[in-house]
């Protein structure tokens, strides 16, 4: 009956001091377990500190991403406004630009023609 309370090394049961038939159980704890418990507490503290550092870093990076997202939204709005202005200016002045390019090309070809005529002589 005493063996059913046996859990692992260092823990054992013995019958009570007053008669061997008692249902009372005495537990003897090995002193090495105190060292293990202290070591586990230290590891738990370290893990808690690491978890807190991870939480702080995650919050910091989340704030950075939120700021980056706002910056991108503002930049996108600025590009959209500039494209709208550019499209309006192309609509208003687009035909005159094409006419200027055509006139420039005609003048250039005319000057090249004249230069080739006078350079042969």
From TrEMBL:
The Gene Ontology biological process annotation of the record reads: protein transport
Give start and end of each T-SNARE coiled-coil homology domain: 27-89
**Gene Ontology CC terms, in alphabetical order:** endoplasmic reticulum membrane; Golgi membrane
- Source domain of life: Eukaryota
Q: Which CDD domains match?
A: SNARE_Qc
User: Which keywords describe this protein according to UniProt?
Assistant: Coiled coil, Endoplasmic reticulum, Golgi apparatus, Membrane, Protein transport, Transmembrane, Transmembrane helix, Transport
- Which stretches are transmembrane? 90-115
Provide the coiled-coil residue spans. none
Membrane-topology annotation of the record:
Single-pass type IV membrane protein
Q: List localization entries.
A: Endoplasmic reticulum membrane; Golgi apparatus membrane
PANTHER family hit by this protein: GOLGI SNARE BET1-RELATED
What family is this?
Answer: Belongs to the BET1 family.
Q: What does this protein do?
A: Required for vesicular transport from the ER to the Golgi complex. Functions as a SNARE associated with ER-derived vesicles.
What is the designated name of this protein?
A: t-SNARE coiled-coil homology domain-containing protein
Origin species: Erythranthe guttata (Yellow monkey flower)
């Amino acid at each position: 009956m005493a063996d059913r309370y046996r859990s692992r090394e260092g823990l054992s049961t013995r019958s009570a001091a007053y008669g061997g038939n008692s249902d009372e159980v005495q537990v003897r704890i090995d002193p090495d377990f105190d060292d293990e418990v202290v070591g586990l507490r230290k590891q738990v503290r370290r893990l808690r500190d690491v978890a807190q550092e991870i939480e702080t870093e995650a919050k910091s990076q989340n704030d950075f991403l939120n700021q980056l997202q706002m910056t991108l939204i503002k930049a996108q709005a600025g590009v959209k406004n500039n494209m709208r202005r550019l499209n309006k200016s192309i609509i208003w002045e687009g035909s005159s630009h094409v006419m200027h390019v055509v006139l420039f090309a005609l003048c250039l070809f005319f000057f090249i023609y004249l230069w080739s005529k006078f350079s042969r002589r």
